[in-house]
Amino acid sequence: MNPANQSQRMPEPLTGPLPRTAVPQTGVLAAQPAPLGVERWRLQIVHRTKFSYAGPVRSSYNEARMTPENTTRQTTLRSRVEVEPAATMQAYRDYWGSTVTAFDLHGPHRELAVVATSVVEAGPEPEPGEVVGWDALADPDVLDRFGEMLRPTRLTAMDAPVVRAVQEVVGDADPREAGLRVCRFVHDHMQYLSGSTDVRTNAMQAWTRGQGVCQDMAHVSVGLLRALGIPARYVSGYLHPRPAAGIGEPVKGESHAWVEWWDGAWTGYDPTNVVEIGTRHVTLGRGRDYKDVPPLKGIFSGPRSQGHSVVVEVTRLA
């Protein structure tokens, strides 16, 4: 058995025709009206991934986390995952609440194509929650409830000197303002550089280099928030890159990562772009770090992989 991580990087884009022979996973919901005064965008996301192998692969087992969630700020109107060659597929919710499409193939194949297509309405959270104080975050019930989002992981642990530096930046701010200061601190000290890291790079490695991609900035932010005693989680999703997007114009989009912290309610923020989560952000799932929510992963038996390509196309529909 030759294991392969079938998602070696947070996706970045590929165009071409959709493979059509797969069994789709489909969900259709009625559009939920946005609260008065809250702007929403309707977005179509087409996420294409293609793997090539040196010879016929005998079998392959995979998981895709490419189905957007339904929350108070986001409604998934339609979503499906297609696979070529055709595969046995099933969908379930994992421990973290993400929708997983599991599929396996048992016939010889030299390529594997996965296409996830979704239509989503997204906007900001309609009602920010009331902020709690630091004493509430130290309450034993809160520590027990959010224990998994307070402990460092291999990808998020930060060294003490960096934690002390961010403590000075935070000062006497309340937990919500502290979260914003942490994200801005990370943005100010790290340069976004595509290809500078990979999914195995941990937060301190990226911090030491002073550069990384969105998942690195999210890992560093999560690690620092947890070190301050603020429950924090890693969010996987998509970002429409244009704040002034035209209706009906397909553009090269991005798989993206950002953070949420609990300060009485879950507050989301994008440290890569130093913006609040809103109309351009589509959430797929949440976890302790990237390893809990990879868009696509799997193992296969057969000749080595010759690489993969990923393309995300986003269109604003309304």
Name of the top-level CATH class of the largest domain: Alpha Beta
- Sheet having the most strands: 6 strands, antiparallel
Name the CATH architecture of the largest domain. Roll
Radius of gyration: 20 Å
Looking across the biggest beta sheet, what order are the strands in?
Answer: 1-4-7-2-17-11
Distance between the termini: 47 Å
The arrangement of helices and strands along the chain is: EEEEEEEHHHHEHEHEEEEEEEE
User: What fraction strand?
Assistant: 35-45%
Can you put this structure into words, describing what you see?
By secondary structure, the chain is an alpha+beta fold. The chain folds into two domains: 120 residues, Immunoglobulin-like (Sandwich); 159 residues, C8orf32 fold (Roll). Helices cover 18% and strands 37% of the residues. It has a six-stranded antiparallel beta sheet, with no helix packed on it. The protein has a five-stranded antiparallel beta sheet with strand order 14-13-12-10-15. α5 crosses α6. The N terminus is likely disordered.
Q: Quick recap of the structure?
A:
With 318 residues, this protein is of the alpha+beta class.
Give me the secondary-structure topology.
Elements: E1 27-28, E2 41-57, E3 59-64, E4 74-84, E5 88-93, E6 99-105, E7 109-122, H1 134-137, H2 140-145, H3 160-170, H4 175-189, E8 191-192, H5 203-209, E9 211-212, H6 214-227, E10 232-239, E11 250-252, E12 254-262, E13 266-270, E14 275-276, E15 281-287, E16 296-301, E17 305-316
Parallel strand pairs: 8-9
Antiparallel strand pairs: 1-4, 2-7, 2-17, 3-6, 3-16, 4-7, 5-6, 10-12, 10-15, 11-17, 12-13, 13-14
Helix pairs in contact: 4-6, 5-6
